[in-house]
């Protein structure tokens, strides 16, 4: 019966990973630019087994790049890239990450930032804005202007292939390519997380039930093992 315990344990571990993923999606359903994670499951046959028992496992967790819902804000530095494009930002390590978080701001040094990091221009450099009382504006082509002066154009990218989350709304490529694209942006809007609260809540309940069933199976097989051990005892 111990094999049955291992089957239940593998299922419980897989469901626990799903619970973590779904709970994260639910918590960030309204986080700007958040992309949901989707665990992938696979069945395994034990080595040398007869095929009578199958083990389950969560083998990977992918990131869903589909767009989320749009929320109007009316603020001139709130942006949404069209056609699923991403902004590029520079990390402290010098690496480039990508995000749909369009809450732009200008720091004390005049660096245009989003998601806490400098935004890349089409030349691959951060965009510097004169530090004064004039709020920059961004047109539909991604040009950043202060009055009549254009200080840079936002770089837009299309992600193809696998990516991983780098905290919050930031994504970094793993096997994917970040391809520069010529696109447009919409101002006065933000994109929220692409995991709806209702969808995530339903998935959470289903995953919790499956986890509970796996734990119940483990307890059942454990009791059967105990009964089998008692059969050989002399009373």
From TrEMBL:
Assigned GO CC terms: bacterial-type flagellum basal body, rod
InterPro entries: Flag_bb_rod_N (IPR001444), Flagellar_basal_body_rod_CS (IPR019776), Flagellar_FlgE/F/G (IPR020013), Flg_bb/hook_C_dom (IPR010930), FlgE/F/G-like (IPR037925), LlgE_F_G-like_D1 (IPR053967)
GO biological process, one term: bacterial-type flagellum-dependent swarming motility
Repeat found in the keyword field: no
Keywords: Bacterial flagellum, Cell projection, Cilium, Flagellum
SUPFAM superfamilies xref list: Flagellar hook protein flgE (SSF117143)
Assembly and interaction partners: The basal body constitutes a major portion of the flagellar organelle and consists of five rings (E,L,P,S, and M) mounted on a central rod. The rod consists of about 26 subunits of FlgG in the distal portion, and FlgB, FlgC and FlgF are thought to build up the proximal portion of the rod with about 6 subunits each.
Family: Belongs to the flagella basal body rod proteins family.
Name assigned to this protein: Flagellar basal-body rod protein FlgF
């Amino acid at each position: 019966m111990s094999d049955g315990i291992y089957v239940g344990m593998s299922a419980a571990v897989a469901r626990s990973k799903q619970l973590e993923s779904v709970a994260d999606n639910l918590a960030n359903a309204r986080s700007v630019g958040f992309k949901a994670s989707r665990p992938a499951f696979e069945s395994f046959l034990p080595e040398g087994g007869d095929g009578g028992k199958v083990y389950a496992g969560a083998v990977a967790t992918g990131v869903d790049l589909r767009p989320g819902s749009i929320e109007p804000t009316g603020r001139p530095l709130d942006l949404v890239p069209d056609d699923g494009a991403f902004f590029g930002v520079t990390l402290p390590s010098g690496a480039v990450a990508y995000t749909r978080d369009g809450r732009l701001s200008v720091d004390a040094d005049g660096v245009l930032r989003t998601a806490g990091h400098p935004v890349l221009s089409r030349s691959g450099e951060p965009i510097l804005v004169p530090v004064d009382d004039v709020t920059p504006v961004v047109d539909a082509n991604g040009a950043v202007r202060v009055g009549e002066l254009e200080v840079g154009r936002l770089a837009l990218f299309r992600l193809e292939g696998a990516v991983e989350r780098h905290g919050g709304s930031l994504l970094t490529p793993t096997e994917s390519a970040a391809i520069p694209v010529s696109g447009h942006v919409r101002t006065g809007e933000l994109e929220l997380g692409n995991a709806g609260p209702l969808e995530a809540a339903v998935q959470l309940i289903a995953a919790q039930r499956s986890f509970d069933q796996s734990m119940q199976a483990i307890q059942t097989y454990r009791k059967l093992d105990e009964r089998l051990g008692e059969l050989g005892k002399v009373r």
